[in-house]
Design brief:
By secondary structure, the chain is an alpha+beta fold. The chain is built from three helices and eight strands. It has helices spanning about 20-25, 55-65, 120-125, and strands at about 1-10, 30-40, 45-50, 70-75, 75-80, 100-105, 110, 130-135. The strands form three sheets. The protein has a four-stranded antiparallel sheet. Strands 5-8 form a two-stranded antiparallel sheet. Strands 6-7 form a two-stranded antiparallel ribbon. Helix 1 (about 20-25) runs antiparallel to helix 2. The protein is elongated, with a radius of gyration of 18 Å. The structure holds iron/sulfur cluster (2 copies).
């Protein structure tokens, strides 16, 4: 499963077309809308997490671009939801950079975001879904 957070910009000429629905129907992709805004001049901006087979993902993005949608990759960061973390240590086994490590003797799991390469390996490894990928280079309107 390939997944990326994308920023889609629709001109007012195409903003009402159901282009994103085609990603599901024709490219077998799934999406999760993180933010949707229509600007005063009627342009639309959609921030979504798009997931699916890597080849389908590429073809789906090409389809959007062919339809006139401006597609931009959101820069991403990995965050930990401290309330969800139970310090089980599962993520430390997959983290290649040491950003997640066990602090002894307390046996708590420390997350040092400065060491994180955003490889995303910890996201599926965490049983409580405490590790999340978040976009960083856009603002919510
Ligand atoms: S796998 Fe999840 S719950 Fe376990 S220590 Fe890591 S972030 Fe916390
Ligand atoms: S995204 Fe990768 S580098 Fe960052 S904490 Fe998770 S496993 Fe470690």
């Amino acid at each position: 499963m390939y997944s990326k957070i994308l920023i889609l910009r629709f001109s007012k000429e195409i903003v009402h077309k159901p282009l994103v629905c085609a990603l599901v129907k024709d490219y077998d992709l799934t999406f999760n809308i993180l933010n949707a805004t229509v600007l005063p001049r009627k342009e639309g901006i959609l921030v979504l997490e798009l997931s699916g087979d890597r080849k389908n993902f590429r073809q789906g993005v090409k389809y959007l671009k062919d339809q006139g949608v401006k597609v931009q990759n959101a820069e991403q960061e990995v965050k930990r939801d401290e309330k969800k973390c139970v310090h089980c240590g599962a993520c430390t086994a997959v983290c290649p950079t040491g950003a997640l490590c066990i602090q002894r003797p307390e046996m708590t799991v420390i997350f040092d975001q400065k060491k994180c390469s955003v490889c995303e390996l910890c996201v599926p490894a965490c049983p409580t879904r405490a590790m999340k990928v978040r976009p960083t280079n856009y603002v919510f309107f």
